[in-house]
Design a protein that fits this description.
The protein is mostly helical and 269 residues long. Among the domains are: 88 residues, Cytochrome Bc1 Complex, Chain D, domain 2 (Orthogonal Bundle), CATH 1.10.760; 92 residues, Cytochrome Bc1 Complex, Chain D, domain 2 (Orthogonal Bundle). The protein is built from ten helices and two strands. It has a two-stranded antiparallel ribbon with strand order 1-2. Helix 4 runs antiparallel to helix 5 and helix 8 crosses helix 9. The longest helix has 49 residues. The protein is extended and about 105 Å long. Its EC number is 7.1.1.8.
Length: 269
């Protein structure tokens, strides 16, 4: 019995250094966490002061590598290649690059949409650089693009100012000399605003004397509502209006009746 008690005591006995080791580990962990948090806070403060400069510098590098061939190293443009970017600002850069229109593959009647070739951060950097060198329209506030404007008023403004080119259903339409008004049913609210303010391609510029900021907000809200709305009549047929609908009925409706008549005649014979 005495031996069993001694064994139990020997097994349960702790090293005299255990407490010191535990305290040391706790102090090291606490110090490491504090140092890491302090470094993160300091880095955040420094980055806030240098973000604009760093982003503009990165944008300048990207611009020189991808855009200067057509638009020139000084943004003055090159005859026969690309226009001057003086005064276009970050809003136009974001529109052209986030829709894949730029860089343009070849000169033509107008730049068409294609897969985007840059990340959002790269586009923002180039836009910041252009804005710093050739200031122009800036990105809209979140309120303008929130979709909570007057949808009814926006739809009326769209019919008056935009539907003659973009179609009343915003499905786009053909213009002269190989140009066209694009389908804007998938366009982001930021790019809808950018199109109204900067007037890309054949689009007219709508300044605040033509359409106020509230008017633009209402138009954006109406288009966002239309993008999300379901078609109550079934197939939209491209939303191109009575021409496409009439053509569909002519081909499939009357064509189907003729096919049935032929089939009945063939059966009777």
């Amino acid at each position: 019995m005495a031996r069993e008690k001694l064994k139990r005591r020997a097994r349960g006995r702790r090293s005299p250094f255990a407490a010191a080791i535990l305290i040391g580990v706790g102090l090291l962990a606490t110090g490491g966490i504090y140092a890491g948090a302090s470094a993160a806070v300091a880095a955040t403060g420094e980055s806030t002061a240098t973000t604009t400069q760093a982003t503009a510098e990165e944008g300048e590098t990207l611009f020189q590598a991808n855009c200067a061939t057509c638009h020139g190293m000084d943004l003055e443009g090159r005859e026969g290649y690309g226009p001057s970017l003086n005064g276009v600002g970050e809003l136009a850069v974001h529109f052209q690059m986030s829709t894949g229109r730029m860089p343009m593959q070849m000169n033509g009647p107008q730049a068409d949409q294609k897969p985007v070739q840059f990340t959002d951060d790269q586009i923002a950097s180039i836009a910041t650089y252009v804005q710093s060198v050739a200031p122009g329209p800036e990105m809209p506030s979140a309120r303008i693009t929130d979709g909570n404007g007057d949808v009814s008023h926006g739809a009326e403004l769209f019919r008056i100012n935009c539907a003659m080119c973009h179609n009343v259903a915003a499905a786009g339409g053909a213009l002269t000399q190989g140009k066209f008004a694009p389908d804007i049913m998938d366009t982001t609210p930021e790019n809808i605003y950018a199109a109204m303010v900067t007037g890309p391609q054949n689009m007219p510029v709508f300044n605040n004397q033509n359409l106020t900021e509230e008017d633009k907000r209402d138009i954006i809200s109406a288009l966002l509502y239309q993008q999300e709305a379901q078609a109550p009549g079934g197939f939209t047929l491209g939303s191109l209006g009575p021409v496409s609908e009439g053509l569909f009925i002519w081909i499939f409706g009357i064509g189907g009746l003729i096919a049935v008549a032929v089939w009945i005649t063939a059966k009777s014979n």
